[in-house]
Design a protein that fits this description.
disordered C terminus; single chain; about 160 residues; mainly alpha; about 30% helix; binds zinc ion
């Protein structure tokens, strides 16, 4: 994920949408088209749209290439710290199970059990992992857990 896409502290939804749009070199019209929300980008960027429904947010998120959660967080005035991906080991994590708190340590870069780099996003498309109750990336369908190749090597 490009770092410019992370909302700045205290940034409003209007400023955030406007900033990302300009960084991507899109006009308001182009963004509205891509997001499927005709004529409403200007309103959003002027802060006139107080409540944005989920479909609009999703459209915007796709058009801007940012997680929907970022838009939701800025819309609510929350810090984006709360919507960072869940850190997990793609080798040791069991789909559907809770993650080991050791992986979530801010300093942890590698799994303390097997040395595999810890991930917090999809290995295929880079979308942040926001719930490990899902086994597959909701954006691209890629499995979060690395495929098990060694299942039958043990005697
Ligand atoms: Zn591991
Ligand atoms: Zn993905």
């Amino acid at each position: 994920m490009d770092t410019f896409k992370t909302p700045n502290s205290g940034e409003s939804l209007a400023n955030y949408v406007s900033r990302i749009r300009k960084t991507l070199n899109l006009t308001q019209l182009e963004l509205a088209d891509a997001a499927g929300i005709h004529g409403r980008v200007g309103k959003i960027e002027r802060g006139l749209t107080v409540k944005i429904n989920r479909r609009t947010l999703q459209g915007l998120a796709i058009a801007l290439g940012v997680p929907t959660e970022y838009l939701e967080a800025v819309g609510k005035g929350e810090e984006v710290k709360q919507v960072q991906g869940i850190k997990f080991c793609p080798q040791c994590w069991n789909p559907g199970a809770a993650v080991d708190p050791m992986w979530g340590n801010v300093k942890a870069k590698f799994c303390y059990l097997c040395g595999t780099p810890i991930r917090a996003n999809c290995a295929n498309c880079g979308e942040l992992v926001l719930s490990l109750r899902h086994r597959f990336c909701p954006v691209c369908g890629f499995a979060y857990k690395a495929s098990v190749k060694t299942a039958k090597t043990r005697k």
